[in-house]
Amino acid sequence: MQRQNDRELRDELVKLRAEHRLLDDEILALEIAGSADQLTIRRLKKKKLALKDQITKIEDRLLPDIIA
């Protein structure tokens, strides 16, 4: 059961990382083009940050801290 849960978490992690990269590319393209308003860019950056938080939470569940 634990393996299945870990597999699901890893699959979710892959999906979230891909979405994070896509947002990063989209933000960069909008900034280079100069065609988007700052509000749109801020919203995308906020969404990207939320994804990063989700990624960190999943990574923490998969790789618990080891006290040395």
Q: What is the strand and helix layout of this fold?
A:
Elements: H1 2-33, H2 38-62
Description:
With 68 residues, this protein is mostly helical. It is 84% helix and 0% strand. It has two helices and no strands. The protein has helices at residues 2-33, 38-62. Helix 1 runs antiparallel to helix 2. The longest helix is centred in the N-terminal third of the chain and has 32 residues, at 2-33.
**CA(first)-CA(last) distance:** 28 Å
Instruction: Please compute the radius of gyration using only Cα atoms.
Output: 16 Å
What form results from the Cα inertia axes? elongated
- Which sheet architecture does the biggest sheet show? none
Unreliably modeled segments? none
Structural class: mainly alpha
Instruction: Please report the total strand number as a whole number.
Output: 0
**Beta-strand level of the residues, as a percent range?**
under 5%
Give helix % range. over 70%
Write the element-wise H/E pattern from the N-terminal end onward: HH
Mean pLDDT: 90
Number of helices: 2
Give a quick precis of the structure.
84% of the residues lie in helices and 0% in strands. With 68 residues, it is mainly alpha-helical.
Structural key phrases:
single chain, 68 residues, mainly alpha, 2 helices, elongated
